[in-house]
Amino acid sequence: MLTKFETKSARVKGLSFHQKRPWILASCHNGNIQLWDYRMCVLLDKFEEHDGPVRGICFHQQQPLFVSGGDDYKIKVWNYRKRRCLFTLLGHLDYIRTTFFHHEYPWILSASDDQTLRIWNWQSRSCICVMTGHNHYVMCAQFHPSDDLVVSASLDQTVRVWDISGLRKKNVAPGPGGLEEHLRNPASTDLFGQADAIVRHLLEGHDRGVNWVAFHPTLPLIVSAADDRQIKLWRMNDTRAWEVDTCRGHYNNVSCVLFHPRQELLLSNSEDKSIRVWDMTKRTCLHTFRREHDRFWVLAAHPSLNLFAAGHDGGMLVFKLERERPVYSVQGNILYYVKDRFLRQLDFTTKKDIAVMQLRGSTRSPPYSMSWNSAEHAVILCFRAPAQENSAYDLYMVPKDVSTQTPDSVESRRSSGLTAVWVARNRFVVFDKTHTILIKNLKNEVTKKVQVPSCDEIFYGGTGMLILRDSDHVTLYDVQQKKTLAQEKCSKCRYVVWSQDTNHVALLGKHCVVLCDRKLAAYASVHETARVKSGAWDDSGVFIYTTANHLKYLLKNGDNGIIRTLDVPIYLTRVKGRTIYCLDREIKPKTFTIDPTEYHFKLALIDQKYEEMLHLIRNAKLVGQSIIAYLQKKGYPDVALHFVKDERTRFALALECGNIDVALEAARALDDKACWEHLGEAALLQGNHQVVEMCYQRVKNFDRLSFLYLITGNLEKLRKMMKIAEIRKDMSGHFQTALLLGDIQERVKILKSSGQLSLAYMTAATHGLTDEAESIAASLDPDTPLPEVHADGELLIPPPPVIQFEGNWPLLTVSRGFFERITTDESKGFVDAAADVTEGEGWVEDEDLRLDEEEGEGISDQLAAEGDGGGWDVDEELELPPELEIKATHDGASDSYFAPPSRGAPPSQSWTSTSPLVVDHILAGSFESAAKLLHDQIGMVNLSPFLDQFLNIFGRSACSFPGLPTLSSMYAYPVRPSPGKTKLPALPIRLNDLVQRLQVGYQLTTAGKFRDAVDRFRGILLCIPMVVVESRQEAAEAQQLLTICREYINGLLMEIMRKDLPKENPADQVRNCEMAIYFTHVNLQPAHQILTLRTALTVAYKIKCLQTAGSLARRLLELGPKPEIAQQARKILQVCDKSPLDESRLHYDEHNPFTICGASYVPIYRGKPEVTCPFCNTSYLPEFEAQLCRVCTVSEVGKKVSGLRLSLQQR
Q1: What span, in angstroms and rounded, lies between the C-alpha atoms of 665 and 657?
Q2: Which of 6, 14, 557, 966 could in theory staple to 57 by disulfide, Cβ–Cβ 3.0 to 4.6 A?
Q3: Does residue 692 belong to any structural domain of this protein?
Q4: Where is the Coatomer alpha subunit C-terminal domain (predicted)?
Q5: Does residue 1163 sit within a domain?
């Protein structure tokens, strides 16, 4: 008997298994009803409404109901979902012994000590039949599984079989005798009616009172158990019933007996503290299971599984009679397993399943384990007996050719032994009953005996090695060298599963799994609450295992998870890709498909196989909070960020990994005040004050916004905040902002308006505003004394900012992660921040175009209303503090001989001699050499646009900190990693900073603020010579950035000039149209390209150049604009196709590639002479050679130069 679950409680008098769920009800002598999950070993619920012992209990087969009967004479029907009693049936006059539901009808059968049986209709809640005839307590009554019969047992020493067909006809079929019978025999009349229940058979033979009786599930048999310690088997037919045989062996009253649902066995329990299993055919006792102190009272069998339950004085136990685990072995693509006394072979590839040979022995003693020898095509089957000394094994030489479907049996060599496993091609090891290792050959002859450490089981441990098991450990033992190689802790290891390459092994315990390498060094383990059943290795090195109710995985780092739930336990044989091969408890091979995405993703994360992770993210459905929580737990929130779709989750992950850009995108989508506040705090920690400004604006946090403008030196926006405070009538904020700005007159005005005339007078008088002070004094009451102005009072004027700080704080340069690089590559260059932004009022509107008598939709100016972007201009020049020189002094003649040491050269002095990069010369303070380098490299002839850059960069070359008292400040020079011994200065400008600034230019362009956008792009362009790159990829990005700035500056300058042109005469209109069309050939972002095409389309359509307008409309539709824009373009195209002619001749050939002259804004077609700017590469007509470039404003057009150098490795 294999005990699966056991409880400790009061005496259990009734048991009932649930039909489908792993539940069992136990009714106790103390009045409680307990609902247990025997698979998870937990108490689910408890029902406590009975007064006194509860003896009868039964689950309904379909409904969420169960019925109970107790010593309080009450029958209660419960709903376990609602967890309450639905109703109570009253009628019995004494203790109720058993209660059972009918398998089909809404009936309940109860037996009572009032000597009656009653049948109740639980739907109408009434008693429909009372069966009398017994003259003592009725101990048990049950329905027949299929016929209209009831059997009852009583202490009057009789068993009665009742016919209830009359009751069925009366209560289930319509009419007095049933409609069908009435139609079948219309002439017959039933004058007195048919009895509801009649006694068909009276079985007498027991010498004492009968305690239990039961029908056979399929055969016409009845079994009864009585106080005469006997179990009687009865057979019946339609006319009579007779005793077949008697089973004797119990030493005390037999409490309960039942038929095995699927085998020819009887199970009985008794007050002699034993459970016995009987052979129905031989009438002999096969097994006896005893307890020390507990009498047994009741038995129950599961309706579909091989499970039984027994109730005793101390609780109850769930058990099964034999192991249901199939015996199998996997060799490559072949599965060998034992079923019905045959060794079978299943080919995984062809799905061919054949019987290989017939085994000796009976099916009632199935093999315990199998060991296969593929070299000799031999197999060892081990059999375990209840008494271990009777255990044995069979050695078979398996035939290689199988010709019939039912092969003959093969001669075997049988010997005693607990376990036998192969350890070499022609040697196997036997673990005998004395716990000694015997090494035998293929003839089953002992060749050697080996004394091993204390153990109680052996497993295969590799060629020539064994794994020995004791209670707490497993040991790797070398049989040849007779020594222990390794030992690992594993509580009661039950099975050992090797990987196909034998480099890994899994040790399966009752509730644990331990993964080890071939040297038995553990590297992962997991503890389970449910029993571990089986396991198999995946091709990728993941261990897949099953518990009683789950299919799970275990990774090499100890992470585990659930793949799917299981209805019934299965035993894994192989895992191949997405397919699971297994055997069920009926030893039927099965396959099913799983989704391995989750553990493949985690394995790729552990192995850092980022390409595989990217493939899984793109092609698989990784959903759920569990995978996100896993990535967060493992420190990979940036990975989770790339496939999470929920904006709130993306926002949290972006903040966790410090990705302000993604967090900003999510915050815009959520538009939640709390999100903006969190984003502002995170951006402030990173020094991204531009995002901080946006967040403060969204949440209207004016105080923090004012302080932000103060510390960044943005006095213009600080003045705006003062105006906002005035409009909001926030006196405190208004005054504080005026104080920060040093605006004396505004402060006086605020004090006057708030009635603080004395303070207004003191403020004006202290700061020298005499006229204002006299005016205030005149307005004061003559009796009010004027406050005294201190002559030595300090003026409250803040220091002016040295420079307006427009860039974000510099951050530590780190290499981009794999996923960040992939995201950047997929974006095709720089992030297009203009794609989703609504254009502003600077673009040409097309409201006056009337197509099909409908007005076209204008372009919204949502973005233009958000802000004017004025805070990006640099108004102040950097003022550097003068260097302090230490002059040597001499006290007198006595010290005249002392010569102080000469001042050493600062590190910056060597930067100009060792570096050919412009930025290093600027940081060294050598503006002259930096200007010469710019002249040689990019043909710079106008230095003035670079002056602000030079001063800003030089201000970052050194940091100053105070020294000791009376001494001057000391300077330190931050350096960057560089090859060789020479250390070069830290870089003030990085390529990523310029890329971030590019987004603002995109936004200004979208908003139609072209002049501000030109200033922005030109500022970025002039910073590119100050950048240092470290790889070819960065060099290409810098060149791409320069190209973007050039295209935008040239195009926007042309658009500004076009908008300033007169439009009165036809020639001016044609020139206006030409410039609008040229703008469409500037290489802009797609969103801006759509805007240029819409502008040119509007202008061309107005002057009736329909052929050109049609071409522009087609180009616009190719870019995929919004539906309303596309609809308008299609209407214009329809009009143009009707008469595709241009009324005016345009200087434009769309089929001939051209560039645009940066001065005259006319096309320079391919093959025509042109000159270019050596810095920004803008094209010009030859007549503009040697002039200043209009785009970059620093270089001479057509000048021969050496080329811009951004890296030390550049040649």
Answers
A1: 15
A2: 14
A3: no
A4: 816-1210
A5: no
Q: Is the pLDDT of residue 840 over 80?
A: no
- Phi and psi based region of residue 417 (left: phi greater than 0; alpha: psi -120 to 50; beta: remaining): left
Helices (H) and strands (E) in the chain, counts: 28, 65
pLDDT at 248: 92
Whether the predicted pLDDT of 780 surpasses 80: no
Q: Minimal CA–CA distance to 1039: which of 940, 1154, 1176?
A: 1176
Please return the burial class of 158, using the count of CB atoms within 10 Å of its CB with bins 0-12, 13-18 and 19+.
buried
Residue 332: band (very low, low, confident or very high) from pLDDT cuts 50, 70, 90 = confident
- Determine how many CB atoms are found less than 10 A away from the CB of residue 733: 18
Give me 195's structure tokens.
């009895």
Q: d(Cα 382, Cα 422) in Å, to the nearest integer? A: 12
Residue 894 predicted with pLDDT over 60: no
The residue assigned the tokens 């040093």 is 742
Rounded to 10 deg, the angle between the 660-670 and 673-686 helix axes is 170
Give residue-wise pLDDT tens across range 1132-1145. 888 888 888 888 88
Q: CA-to-CA distance for 739 and 751, rounded, in angstroms? A: 12
- State pLDDT tens for residues 522-563: 999 999 888 899 999 998 889 999 998 899 999 988 888 888
Distance, CA of 962 to CA of 920 (rounded, Å): 26
173 Cβ contact list (under 8 Å, min separation 6): 179, 180, 181
**Residue 659 Cα to chain centre, angstroms:** 19
CB 76 within 8 A of CB 67: yes
CA distance 947 to 944: 5
- Which residue shows structure tokens 């003022």? 879
pTM over 0.90: no
Q: What is the pLDDT of residue 880?
A: 28
Q: Is the pLDDT of residue 827 over 70?
A: no
Residues in a beta bridge with 1195: 940
Average pLDDT of 574-591?
Answer: 89
Residue 41: domain span: 2-168+196-320
Q: What is the DSSP letter of 11?
A: P
Helix, coil or strand: residue 1085: coil
pLDDT, mean of residues 905-928:
79
**Rounded distance, CA 146 to CA 579, Å?**
41
Give a yes or no: residue 129 inside a domain.
yes
The DSSP code sequence of 581-594 is EEE-TT--EEEEE-
Query: What is the rounded distance in angstroms from the CA atom of residue 230 to the CA atom of residue 331?
Result: 51
For 927, the enclosing helix (H) or strand (E) is helix 927-938
Helix intervals (H) in 1007-1141: 1010-1023, 1032-1060, 1066-1079, 1086-1102, 1106-1118, 1123-1138
Q: Which amino acid is at 802?
A: V
Mean pLDDT of the chain: 82
- List the CATH number of the domain containing 312: 2.130.10.10
The more confident residue out of 904 and 1143 is 1143
Q: Check whether 695 has a pLDDT greater than 80.
A: yes
Q: Which amino acid makes up residue 719?
A: R
Q: Does any domain span residue 519?
A: no
Number of residues assigned to the chain: 1211
Q: Which residues are within 8 A (CB) of 254 and not within 5 positions of it... i.e. 6 or more apart?
A: 211, 212, 225, 226, 227, 229, 230, 231, 268, 269, 270
- The total number of structural domains that make up the chain: 1
The mean-pLDDT minimum among 150-159, 486-495, 906-915, 1055-1064 falls in 906-915
Mean pLDDT of the 925-935 span: 87
Amino acid at 177: G
Residue 2, pLDDT > 70, answer yes
Q: What is the pLDDT of residues 552-566, one digit of tens each?
A: 999 988 888 888 888
Q: How far apart are alpha carbons 253 and 255 in whole angstroms?
A: 6
Helix (H) / strand (E) containing 637: helix 637-640
- The stretch 277-296 carries a mean pLDDT of 89
Could you count the other beta carbons within 10 Å of the beta carbon of residue 510? 11
- The Cα–Cα gap between 778 and 440 comes to 125
